[in-house]
Amino acid sequence: MDIKAKLQRFGKRTITLEELSSVTNTVSSDVRNLYTRIQEVCELGYIEPVKNSGKNGNISYPLYKKYRILVKEEADNETIDEIRKLHPLLLRSGYLSANPLEFQKNRAVIECLSAYLFGDKDVTFISRKERSFEIFGHEKTLDDSIVKTLLRKLQITESELGFYDTPEYCFHDYIPVRKDHMALLICENKDIWFNIRRRMFEDGVRSLFGVAIDGVVYGEGNKVSDRTGALEEYVKFMGDPDVKFLYWGDIDREGFDIFRRTKDANDRLDISLFVPGYRKMIERARDTELEDSPSSKKQGMCFDDLINEFSDDERNFLTDIFDNNKLIPQEIISYKYLKEGC
Questions:
Q1: For 141, which DSSP code?
Q2: What is the pTM of this model?
Q3: Which range has the worst mean pLDDT, 113-127, 141-155, 165-179, 211-225?
C-alpha cells in the first residue's frame, strides 16, 4: 500500500512524528532518512506541519512533532448515491458532498435527520429534548457536542428542526388561582413542566388527561425528594392549604425511586403517582426501542408496591422496564401531543 493510501485510511486528521515513521516504513532513529522521507511527503501535498506542535530538537534535520493530513479517503459510488438521496436541507451547505466520509461516520444521525425533514410537516415548536426524542428516539442526542458540531457544518438551525431551549424557570410553580383545596401536578423534568404551564397560561387548560389540576410544580429531579422535607416546606410557604399532589416523572428506576423518596421525605402530605400521565407514556412507547437508563446503580430495586393502580399488562410492561434498566423519558409527551391530546 502506498503512502497516500495509508494516510487516507489513517483515521485521524493529524499524525505524530512517531506514527509517520511507521507509516513511511522508516526507522525513527535514522533521523536523516526520516527527514528526507517526510519532506517528500510534504512536497507531494499529502501532509503539512502543525507548527505549534514544536520540533524534534535536531538542528541538522528539524522535524515537527505533529503533521496535518491533507489527503482524504475517497468514498465509493454507493456512498455518494446515498448522500444525494438525503433531504435537500442536509445538502445545502455542500459539507457532505465534499466530505462523504463524514456521512459514513455519522450515518445514523444524518439518516434520522433526513427522515424527519422529509416526513414532518408540522410547524409546532417543541423543546430540544422532545424534538431529540422524536427524531432519534433519545432525548439527549441534540445535546451531544458531536451532533451540535455536525448541525453547524450542515447549517441546520434550531428553527428548521422546530425546537427551542426551555428557559430556566422563573417560578417554582404555576398556580393561576390559590385555593384552600388544590390538586397540584409535580413534574420531574423541566420541559414537561414548562409545557403544561404554557397550556394552562395560554389556553386556560385546567385538566390533564381527564384529571382536574389547579397548578403545576417543577420538581427539579431529585430536589423534590430532599430529605429535609422540601415539599412540606413549600406547602407551609403557601399558607398550609389542603393539597393533593400528583407526581409525574420518567419511567425508569430513578424516576420511581424519586417518587418513593419524595413520599418518605414528606410523609404528612398526600402524594400519589399521576397514573393517566404514565399510561400515555406507556401507550406512546409500545412500538419504540427503549434506551438504557443511567440508573444502573439501583439494580434489584422493587417497585411492585407503587404500580398497583395499573392494569396487569401495564404492570408487566413497567416491571420489564425496571428489570432491564430501560427508560421512557417524560419528553415522549411533547408539547404538540399535549396540545392535540388534551
A1: G
A2: 0.68
A3: 165-179
